[in-house]
Amino acid sequence: MKVCVIGTGYVGLVGSAIFADWGNEVIGVDIDDSKIKKIEAGKMPIYEPGLGEIVTENIKDGRLSFTTSLVKGLKGAELVFICVGTPQDDKTGAANLSHVWDVAKEIGENIKDYKVVVTKSTVPVGTNERIKRIVGKHTAKGVDFDVASNPEFLREGSSVEDMRNPDRVVIGSDSKKALEKLRKIYDHLNTIIVETDLRSAEMIKYASNSFLATKISFINEMAQICERAGADVSQVAYGMGLDRRVGKYFLRAGIGYGGSCFPKDVAALYKTSTDQAYDFKLLRSVMEVNENQRAYYVDKITDYFGKNLTGKKIACLGLAFKSDTDDARESVAIKIIRTLRGLGAKICAYDPKAMKNAQEILGDSNITYTENAYDAMKGADALCLLTEWSQFGELDLGRVEKSMVAKVIFDGRNLLDKEEAEKAGFAYFAIGKRASGVDYTRFEEGSSAILESANGS
Ligand code: UGA
């Protein structure tokens, strides 16, 4: 099938590559000429395991090409995927759809025969109907088209694998013909293809991301109560996650969720709810808990050192918003580093992939970027673990202990084993774990007092 993909961000670039790898003839369109030239030369604009090889191979085999010309991209294409960014509007929290509207107008102006215009970008409910109106307004007389929604669920860092083996594919349209054509590109996959109306498909994407964010905020609140009550949130998450109705994923407590998707999508769904005169209270709390989680982590550091961190050297491992990516957008690690720097600390930072992107956001003031994790810890007063890279969980604590001045670890991702860290001579603070030296019997007294009053005694 001939396919046009507009936008070469995470969704667009991975989508183009995988569609081509499935045997389709794909042309990727982007307004950024230099980006396209780099991709054509085999230099991926993002770090994504396996992507470079697939792109290069499919370009070589003649199934994949890129252009800045939408006219060229549209020629002969049956499916036209819109994969442009929908960033958060800072003022309202809603998704900013200006790129989507621009592309819809251009598609309308340039199509000459029947197309299915498919939105893969994450867009609020009702957007595809407006796309239909915009395309229709600019289409020449007699040229037919349909619109469809096909939200993407891939995760950064495992996007190739996610797109090849999705848990489900969602396609929504009010046109049977469009659904049939769209189904064809996915039919060979061993997965369920969910057919819906336009609005439901749009909503499934926001509901999925918001529900996952809710799981994270839930476990982060559990962490708060576990820590106070002397339980261990990792053990609790494991025990509850084995129940298939609960599910074991997205129950890792930490410093809160970040990235270019969850924060913006939860905010956008909340905005949709208020637009519909409904206050989605649960989502409001999900966002609030996520913000507080960061402050709760920083409080651990200031409780230990005091609020003035001037003269303290803090080693920060992890800059990306999560592991296996070089993406530092909306990274909680970056926000925490900003706060620590604001309190006077000197930061030594390391991340396996996100150094360059993080440096562009944070600059160089009071930050040294080191070439490896161990260099960051030399002469440090504290170690902060901020991104869940697996290599940080395998640090040689004996070596770390020797190179640091003060021996304290603030593990924001529960990567290390508390006993091992303490055995290696560290004061160890994690998320939702029993703290050393706290008298937990006060909680038992508290709970029995509650029980007694409930029994009327
Ligand atoms: C997320 C969704 O998982 C994808 O399904 C979706 O397609 C994508 O957004 C999107 O809308 O484009 P992504 O942002 O790449 O994917 O990253 P996730 O793996 O979902 O992680 C998001 C954040 O949650 C990260 O900051 C991560 O560290 C945090 N997280 C995740 C936790 O704090 N605890 C967990 O248990 C899981």
What would you say about this model in short?
The protein contains 18 helices and 14 strands. It is of the alpha/beta class and 457 residues long. The protein starts with a strand and ends with a helix.
Explained architecture:
With 457 residues, the protein is α/β, with parallel strands linked by helices. The protein has two domains: 2-196, Rossmann fold (3-Layer(aba) Sandwich); 210-429, NAD(P)-binding Rossmann-like Domain (Rossmann fold), CATH 3.40.50. Helix content is 46%, strand content 14%. The chain has 18 helices and 14 strands. A six-stranded parallel β-sheet has the order 3-2-1-4-5-6, with helices on both faces. Strands 11-10-9-12-13-14 form a six-stranded parallel β-sheet. It starts with a strand and ends with a helix. Residues 449-457 have low confidence and may be disordered. Bound molecules: uridine-5'-diphosphate-glucuronic acid. The site of uridine-5'-diphosphate-glucuronic acid has 22 residues, from helix 9 and helix 11.
